[in-house]
Design a protein that fits this description.
Elements (H helix, E strand, L loop, with lengths): L2 H8 E4 L4 E5 L4 H7 L3 H9 L2 H4 L4 E5 L7 H7 L4 H12 L7 E5 L4 H4 L7 E3 L23 E5 L6 H12 L1 H5 L1 E3 L12 H4 L16 H7 L2 H5 L1 E7 L20 H8 L4 E4 L4 H6 L20 H16 L3 H23 L14 E2 L4 H4 L3 H4 L1
Parallel strand pairs: 2-3, 3-4, 4-5, 6-7, 6-8, 8-9
Antiparallel strand pairs: 1-2, 1-10
Length: about 375
């Protein structure tokens, strides 16, 4: 993303929510790094001053990902480019309320430290998951296994789950799972990883094109399993070695079981179940122990999750099906809540943008709004 692409129409105005949005791509750090100089940034932002003067909010949107720009820019020696944004905001006398940077990181204020006041969490969740077609007739579902666990990349916690499935024959036979069929994960150990198998869900009989896998590959296995073991992108609390805080955010992985009316065990950072509940989702503490969510030590949390899986696997398929039938009102509630996520500030799903390039600010019929 650079100034030229912005000039072609990546500055847009949202009439419904009264803000101007500059899409910076997946990375604000990359966007700022590609600018030739401070003057180029100021030229882009100054084009929006007329609208800001009329109390329209200006947003730099990097909500496609949950990066920590302060950390990323510091690593490449360009932290001063965040100071450019501070200088522009101060010299133009733009209030905190009328200028924000969006990122999916729910901890963006804390994680960006002295620059945190510039940031606002905004989870760009798109409708890129499969939705239950039988949400009104869940009692008719036929189950042939207890669990499904999609793990495309190899990380420490996913490798541990893989080893659990492989070491417990009964659990293995009751679980559809994938593992390590993409590139090495966050904690690669090439010598060891090269010996690990690459297992896709397709090995159970369903064939998918690469472009369809992310959205639909798990669909048939979700339909015929009871519990989803949901592995989010990040599990550990801090970055290895440096010990810095990880960003926290929801990806499509979280919404797959919710949209498919499945209960789930959440392999994620501590407190993320509670965060999900803050958006009015219901979880499954009535039916099993969810205290693992409050365990801050990642290794202890993982062991608690594995113990829970083993305990649930001791129940028969019929026993778990009876449990599922009792959950149906909760599952239907969650399904409807996914469809209405946009009512929360931190999610934008149905915010439609009307594209206008910088030149069009002055020549489009809307010029009176911006000037």
């Amino acid at each position: 993303m650079n100034k030229d692409s912005i000039l072609k129409g990546d500055i847009v105005y949202n009439f419904k929510h009264n803000y101007i949005r500059i899409y910076t791509g997946y990375s604000l750090a990359e966007f700022l790094s590609e600018l030739k100089d401070k003057r180029e940034l100021f030229q882009i932002l100054d084009s929006c001053l007329g609208a800001i003067a009329r109390d329209f909010k200006l947003v730099l949107d990097s909500s496609s990902e949950a990066e920590i720009p302060r950390r990323d820019l510091e690593e490449i020696g360009k932290l001063y480019r965040l100071d450019w944004l501070v200088e522009w905001k101060d010299t133009r006398k733009v209030s905190d309320e009328l200028f924000k940077i969006w990122t999916s990181d729910f901890r963006c204020v804390e994680n960006n430290k002295e620059y945190g006041y510039l940031f606002e969490p905004m989870n760009q969740y798109s409708n890129n998951v499969a939705y239950a077609l039988d949400n009104e007739k869940l009692f008719l579902r036929k189950f042939d296994r207890k669990f499904v666990c999609a793990m495309s990349r190899n990380t420490l916690e996913r490798k541990s789950l893989f080893e659990l499935f492989e070491s417990n024959e009964n659990l293995k036979n009751n679980t559809y799972y994938s593992f390590n069929y993409r590139e090495s994960g966050i904690y690669p150990n090439p010598e060891e990883d090269n010996k690990l198998p690459h297992l896709a869900l397709e090995r159970y009989g369903e064939e998918w094109e690469e472009v369809s896998r992310t959205q639909f590959a798990g669909f048939p296995y979700q339909n015929k399993t009871i519990i989803n073991i949901t592995c989010e992108t990040f599990f550990h609390e801090t970055l290895p070695i440096v010990g810095e805080q990880y960003q926290r955010f929801f990806t499509e992985k979280t919404f797959r079981p919710l949209a498919m009316c499945q209960p789930f065990i959440y392999v994620a950072q501590s407190g993320m179940l509670e965060k999900l509940k803050s958006f009015e989702f219901k979880t499954f503490g009535k039916w099993w122990d969810e205290s693992y969510d409050s365990i801050e030590d990642s290794n202890s949390r993982l062991e608690a999750i594995k113990d829970l899986i083993v305990q649930l696997n001791k129940k028969s398929l019929d026993e778990l099906r009876e449990m599922y039938l009792d959950m149906i009102p909760t599952l239907q509630w969650n399904y409807k809540n996914v469809l209405n996520l946009h009512r929360f500030h931190e999610f934008h799903i149905t915010h439609n943008y009307n594209g206008m390039g910088i030149d069009e600010f002055y020549y489009a019929p809307y010029h009176k709004i911006f000037n």
